[in-house]
Amino acid sequence: MTRSRGRQTVRIAGGQGFWGDWLEAPYRQVTGGPVDYLMMDYLAEVTMSILQKQKSRDSSLGFAKDFVPLMERLLPILVERHIRVTSNAGGVNPRACAQAVAALAHRLGFGGKLRIGVVTGDDLLARLDGLLARGHELRNLDTGRPLSDVRDRVLSANAYLGAWPVVDALRRGADVVVAGRVTDTGLTLAPMIHAFDWRPDAWDLLAAGTVAGHTIECGAQCSGGNCLKDWQTIPDLANVGYPIVEAGPDGTFEITKHPGTGGRIDVAGVTEQLVYEMGNPAEYITPDCIADFTTIRLTQAGKDRVRFSGIKGRPATDTLKVSVAYFYGYKAVGTLVYAWPDAYKKAQAADRVLRQRLAALGLKFEAVLTEFVGADATHGALARASAPLDDLPEVQLRIGVRSPDKAPVERFTREIAPLILNGPPSVTGFAGGRPKPEEIVAYWPALLDKRMVEPCVEIVDA
């Protein structure tokens, strides 16, 4: 723990906002100044199904593979500076991920110096039939359909665990916590619970930690990245600083970043992150509590420093959200670029020709979607009504199809290239070559009684 401005604080650095985020960020976070924890969030809904497919092919896979080489770079610093890690990099195979990190630590000479906490219990795939047989229908939150409608196509099913299993691992001495589907917010809330010994029913405090986690879960999105407000004035994005939570035991906290880094942390930018993926702001529901975002009070406490206070929370619900991924069908997307003059009209004509040919072949699709990139792909009819489109220098025709069956999608992929010579003139780019059919993984959100999920925490010594 560190001391800041005369009071006890804990500093939690956000290092990854998704699987594929900037690999330099975690290194910069642990070397740029004092921090107590490094939080790394890897998982999105579709990520779980990708990892499950990897694990089905190789039982040693199923976790975020970037995590292990990253830890090879970080471990000497983490051990020297006593920085602890919370991460959901374990995906659908946390034990394999932890074993890989343990082997790495042993090879680097840290045997006996590192404890790895493994959090499991979120993976419900092998239990689905039993749950359905016991009357847990796992109805789709959007449509109300029971999961039995698509059970034979399910690829993955994971309950969202909260912060408490991670807290358990930290209390048992884990230096690195490797979890499966733990909520993004729980990875930040857990160090705060552990550091300040918050009670499970301290709803306002848990809500504050949840808000802190939500603020940094997307990495630099709250410190200048992907920021709409005065984006052209944000300094040195090439050297953007990732966010740090500096929290106190009373639930107040500040968001800041290391000195000398680029980006910007201000009330406007932080507010943009707060409304990210937001439903009812008064009811931000997590496994740990319900946080009322309407009670958040933000103050610019200094350069690149925003203070949060006043946050209120309510008791958690008696259910957990379950993220199910299932096979839906096939899709393919093809593109052609048309040049001036009449670029937009040429792309429109090519779209009409292609659709006529697909109809003449008798191909049936669930959906056919056309976008004219450079003209109206982003703003649709609004762009066509407000912008002069007759003199655009280039327009990309992007057309995609979707079908439960692979055959019509496969045939569609053969109808794009011929347009280069037998369609409208001036094709200048056949981006990516002939498209390929891709499997579609669909998302099925559901709720499950908390009593049906039992998190498990193990400790692995390097």
Q: Given the C-alpha coordinates, what overall shape results?
A: globular
Helical amount: 25-40%
Number of strands: 20
Largest sheet: 11 strands, mixed
Runs with pLDDT <50, length 5+?
Answer: 1-7
Task: Please report the distance between the alpha carbons of the first and last residues.
Answer: 24 Å
- Residue share in β-strands: 25-35%
Structural class: alpha+beta
Radius of gyration using CA atoms only: 25 Å
Mean pLDDT: 95
The structural domain count equals 2
Number of helical segments with 4 or more residues: 13
Offer a concise description of the structure.
With 462 residues, the chain is an alpha+beta fold. It has helices at 24-31, 45-57, 67-81, 94-107, 128-133, 164-171, 186-196, 203-216, 267-274, 343-360, 381-386, 406-413, 419-422, and strands spanning 2-4, 7-16, 37-40, 84-87, 115-120, 154-159, 176-179, 244-247, 253-256, 284-285, 290-292, 297-302, 305-309, 312-314, 319-339, 367-373, 394-403, 427-429, 438-449, 456-461. The chain folds into two domains: 2-122 and 160-317, no CATH class; 324-440, Alpha-Beta Plaits (2-Layer Sandwich), CATH 3.30.70.
Overview of the structural elements:
This protein is an alpha+beta fold. It folds into two domains: 2-122 and 160-317, no CATH class; 324-440, Alpha-Beta Plaits. The chain has helices at residues 24-31, 45-57, 67-81, 94-107, 128-133, 164-171, 186-196, 203-216, 267-274, 343-360, 381-386, 406-413, 419-422, and strands spanning 2-4, 7-16, 37-40, 84-87, 115-120, 154-159, 176-179, 244-247, 253-256, 284-285, 290-292, 297-302, 305-309, 312-314, 319-339, 367-373, 394-403, 427-429, 438-449, 456-461. The strands form three sheets. Strands 1, 2, 3, 4, 5, 7, 8, 9, 12, 13 and 20 form an eleven-stranded mixed sheet that branches. Strands 6, 15, 16, 17, 18 and 19 form a six-stranded antiparallel sheet that branches. Strand 8 and strand 9 (253-256) form a beta hairpin. The longest helix has 18 residues, at 343-360. Mean pLDDT is 95; it is low at 1-7.
